[in-house]
Amino acid sequence: MAEENKNKSWIRQLRNKYRLVIMNDDTFEEKVSFKLSPMNVFVFFGTIFLTLIIGLIYLIAFTPLREYVPGYAADITNQGQVIHLSIKTDSLEKAILAKDHFIKNLQRVLNGDVDIDSSIAKNNATPLRFDTIKSLRKSKDDSLLRSQFESESSFDLNVTENNNKINSISGFFFFPPLKGTVTNTYDPTTQHFGIDIVAPKNEAVKSTLDGTVIFSSWTVETGYVIGIQHSNNLVSVYKHNATLLKKSGNSVKAGEAIAIVGDSGELTTGPHLHFELWYNGVPIDPTEYVALK
User: Fold this and answer.
1) Residue 119 burial (CB count, 10 A)
2) pTM
3) Confidence band, pLDDT 50/70/90 cuts, at residue 232
4) Where are the domains of the chain?
5) What does residue 276 show for φ and ψ, rounded to 5 degrees?
6) Sign of the torsion formed by the C-alpha atoms of 176, 178, 182 and 187
7) Which among 162, 167, 181, 150 is positioned nearest to 122, based on CA atoms?
C-alpha cells in the first residue's frame, strides 16, 4: 500500500502546475509568465528530440547526403555516369593527342620543313612490273595467246595510279582563292610547293573549298598564314597575307573571304598570295585543279 501511494505521489508531482515568470530586473515588473508542469516540459523536449531524429534519418536516406556516409552503397545511376565520363575523357585525350600530332605536322609543312626527296621519290617511284612471266619458257601457242592479249588490253600502273589520284578530287569545284597573275609556278625541286598570284592591294583572299581552319598565325618567313582542312585529306594553305579574317576552328565555305592579300614575311618581294594544295600529305600543282582566270 505504501509503495502504491508513493507511485501515485510521483505521478501527481509530474502533473503539478508551476509558473515560469519573466520579470524586469530593475522594476520587478512581470513581463511574461507561463504555467508549466514537468509533464509538459518532458513532452515538449521529447517532441523536439524525435523531430530532429526523424529529420536526420530523412536527410540520410532520401537525399544525396547519403553518399557521404561511409559504407553506404552509391547510386547505380551515378556509377554508370562516372564510367561513361571516364570513357569519354579517355576518348577525348586520344583525340587531342592525334590533333596535336596533326598540327605539328602541318606546322612543318607551313614552315617548309619537308623532305623533298621523299615526296619526289613517292611520286616518281619505279612502277611495279608484271612481266616476270617472260622469264618462263613459252610455247608457240602461248606466244600467240600472249601477243593477242597484250594487243587487246595493255596495263600501265602509272596511268592507273594517276587516274585514281585525279578521280578522287577531280570532282571538287575549286573556287579561285584570288584573281590575278601567276608569277611563280609550282616547282617541288626548288621546294616551291605552290604558286604565287599577284593582285592589287586589299584584295580578299578566299577559301577554295568548304572546310575548317586548322592554322591561323604568323611565321617569320611567310608572314600571316592560314591553313584549311578540306574533305578527302586535302589541305589548302595561303601565305604572305596582310591580315587574317578567320581563326583556328572556324568553319568556312568555298568563296568565303579568309584573309587580305599582302607581303608579310621575309620570303616576299611584294604583295602577292602564295597558294598551296596538299593531298594525303603530298604537295600537288594547284593549276591542275583550280581555274585562276
Assistant:
1) 16
2) 0.47
3) confident
4) 76-110, 181-288
5) -125, 150
6) negative
7) 162
Do the beta carbons of residue 278 and residue 235 sit within 8 Å? yes
Q: Is 21 exposed, middle or buried (0-12, 13-18, 19+ CB in 10 A)?
A: exposed
Rounded CA-CA distance 254/177 in Å is 9
What pLDDT does residue 156 have? 45
Residues 150-205 pLDDT 10s: 655 444 444 344 444 555 677 788 999 998 889 999 999 998 999 999 988 889 99
Do 211 and 252 form a contact (C-beta atoms < 8 A)? yes
Q: What percent of the chain has pLDDT over 90?
A: 30
181-288 — its CATH code? 2.70.70.10
Please choose, from the candidates 240, 234, 237, the residue with its C-alpha nearest in 3D space to the C-alpha of residue 226: 237
CA-to-CA distance for 208 and 289, rounded, in angstroms? 10
* CB-count exposure of residue 285 (10 Å: 0-12, 13-18, 19+): middle
SS3 for 82? Answer: helix
**H/E element holding 51?**
helix 38-62
- Could you report the per-residue pLDDT of 87-117, keeping only the tens digit for each? 888 888 888 888 888 888 877 777 766 654 4
Q: 237 and 213 in contact (C-beta within 8 Å)?
A: no
Distance of CA 54 to the CA centre of its chain: 50
- What does the alpha-carbon distance between residue 146 and residue 143 come to, in Å, rounded to a whole number? 5
